[in-house]
User: Fold these one by one.
Assistant:
Number 1:
Amino acid sequence: MTTVPEPAARSPKAEQTRRGITNAAMVLFRERGYDKTTMRAIADEAGVSLGNAYYYFGGKEHLIQAFYDQVQVEHAAAAEGVLAGEKSFAPRLHGLLGAWVDISAPYHEFAGQFFKNAAEPTSPLSPFSPDSAPAREASIALFRRVVEDSDLKLAPALRRELPELLWLLHMGVVLFWVYDASPGQRRTRELVARAVPLVDRLARSTRLPVVRGVVDDMLELVGALRT
Amino acid sequence: MTTVPEPAARSPKAEQTRRGITNAAMVLFRERGYDKTTMRAIADEAGVSLGNAYYYFGGKEHLIQAFYDQVQVEHAAAAEGVLAGEKSFAPRLHGLLGAWVDISAPYHEFAGQFFKNAAEPTSPLSPFSPDSAPAREASIALFRRVVEDSDLKLAPALRRELPELLWLLHMGVVLFWVYDASPGQRRTRELVARAVPLVDRLARSTRLPVVRGVVDDMLELVGALRT
DNA sequence: GTCTATAGTGGGATAGAC
DNA sequence: GTCTATCCCACTATAGAC
């Protein structure tokens, strides 16, 4: 759910115009939803011509980037607070996943409207797309910090893969969140609250011989699929 | 990826018109892909007016139903062959999941184009939507047969939930498949080939105390989320 | 390089006559 | 149930002002 920022604008004036357009888009998206916000209305709200809006943004969906960027920046900031004091793995993971749900809550209603754009495999907005690589790496880095500075003792092979696996878990939570119609996304919070101890338990039991076989299989699986 | 058929038409004439439109849509979707097929072209190909096409189908995405129905019927038929002779759990599961990949292979390229419509939470095409309930149940029933007539010995609680969990696994495979750009969906087949023994191993190890704790947590999780 | 104004195309969706 | 006519809007094109 995160992507690359647009290339830096040349002049400060251009930067201001660009900001005006993204701001207008964010306001209108929240006011009327994605589908009912027209490019004309965005241009009007920003006080620029329609053509100018298209000069800065290739299309309507490019404006979704602004939302992604905002969420990602807030998530990274929130991560600081969470990861600074806590050393136990479970609370660290719960803090990071929960922070995302908190941050994204205001956008839940209209996020579903443009989720389909990100879902299209060929879309640059897909979290798996090359365009999203930098933001994806940044997000994975947060999960790497969750693992590395925690009290978890793991086999090196698993320790290497775990951050990416946790990011995949995060994507799963996002998917669930999009479909979650419960008030305040209660069910997503419950999912997080229950999934974290489960992951913690699984991760800690990897030293047992029985479990280790399963874990090795899983690592082989993800390794094979990455090729 | 499956949904409910449209309500039965009244007259035979209407039924014929409807068929003509769905046929035209299927032909053009495969020829040019979903996005490049216009409703006008579909109406032309079917020999009806644009307005008439909309009289029968609420929108372009409603025509995707025809594709879903086709795949589901083929999958159910293929399941017969797979489940008839085999009694071991792993080959049964592998057979069912593999059959879906085989059947869907011809549609892979253009399936990605309209996947986004199914991904939208409010869409009736979503596999989790109420509209999809009958087809979803039919699909889960296939996985129930995979479990019930197999050699698996399981705790009753798990045995009750496993079919739905396997259907979720199936949805995961579908999701992976949509994003899989490898030739012949090689990676999806590899995912299936490696995930099945893993699931088999996990299911069979549920008698061990360590694993049982994890399984109980998982069952509690899905139970809590269903509410 | 930044921006406006205007005109136009294409295609999804609808209204209303028959 | 079927058509024709129309609307709406994303998006493009262009010509030119600063």
Number 2:
Amino acid sequence: MLAPGQALFRLGDPTAGVHEILRGQMQMVRVDASGREVVLYAAVAGEIFTEAALFSPIYHCDAITRTGATVRLYPKDKLLAEFRRNPQAAEAFMAILARQIMSLRTRIEQRNIRSAGDRARHFLALNTGTDGRTVLLRGNLKDLAAELGLTHEALYRALAGLAAKGEIKRFKNKIVLRDKAQLM
Amino acid sequence: MLAPGQALFRLGDPTAGVHEILRGQMQMVRVDASGREVVLYAAVAGEIFTEAALFSPIYHCDAITRTGATVRLYPKDKLLAEFRRNPQAAEAFMAILARQIMSLRTRIEQRNIRSAGDRARHFLALNTGTDGRTVLLRGNLKDLAAELGLTHEALYRALAGLAAKGEIKRFKNKIVLRDKAQLM
DNA sequence: CGGCGTTTTGAGAGAGCTCAACATCGGTGG
DNA sequence: CCACCGATGTTGAGCTCTCTCAAAACGCCG
């Protein structure tokens, strides 16, 4: 349980283990030679971070929460001991890491797309449900815009544009893509 | 050894194992409901990919090389067997995955920065050598621009701007940051 | 010297960001 | 039941910054 502005750990601190964010956000921050802050990563609720702490004696950045946050710690020694005793647990953890890599790569590819319309399309295409055409929206559009790295205005306009061209249909909390057969 | 345009595997193929790129580039591609290609990730020489293949029976995307590529396969069953037998090997692989996650996160944060100058600064701040001020440039600036997701023109201008403001000094194959004491 | 790729600089256009105003929706309290 | 209020959603106008296309200077190698 951390108050806004509080640090979970600082650069150089001995590593404790893997953390999971239950509520709020954490920023991994490094300070460069000229004293400027460089944000390495901003983690949100539901994510685990400091995986690399398992393999390093000290932290290589600061972890600060601006929003306040609740964090759960999985102690390093217990995890490693469990992995040694139980190869299945080790495999499961590897699977978690591998999935994170995939999702991060997809996100990078997404950020490579400059056009707001194309970026929205990219997101929609990768987040369709089982029917391959329906995307359920989890939160509000402002949050989605942040996730896509767009201003909410740009996202509204992009979606309006896609809808105008008939590529999508918008509903309360879902978006349906027009597929090849144009069934929708 | 793959020819340009050749596919290493296709969506739905049974997974073989983890691949390392020795030469060239591979693109992970998925095709969306409307038949459009969506690039999940572009991997370059030196990287490993399909880590997640260890934990899935089939591939969830196509792997295609446009440039042609040489790829080494680490067979899935051998890797998993080795991990079960040898917890140290498992730990080492986890460490590789964890490091990749860190580097991907840093890259995402980099791509969140819109200003070319800020993005260059971010890169420089995170790539200083032991003295905390000197960045050795591995390749040419065009390649660096591509790595940063900028056009080479934009990067040239950004560096020129930083140099004009005295934040950096440019040399043949290195860039030196001005630190707080302005020693340079 | 000639050719090729990298580095640099210039001009113009497009697209997203910023600031701003307004609409819509849901919840709250009178 | 309705008025109010805040947050979300939407649209408008202008600006800035990068991208694109273009051209020139520079460096390297045959």
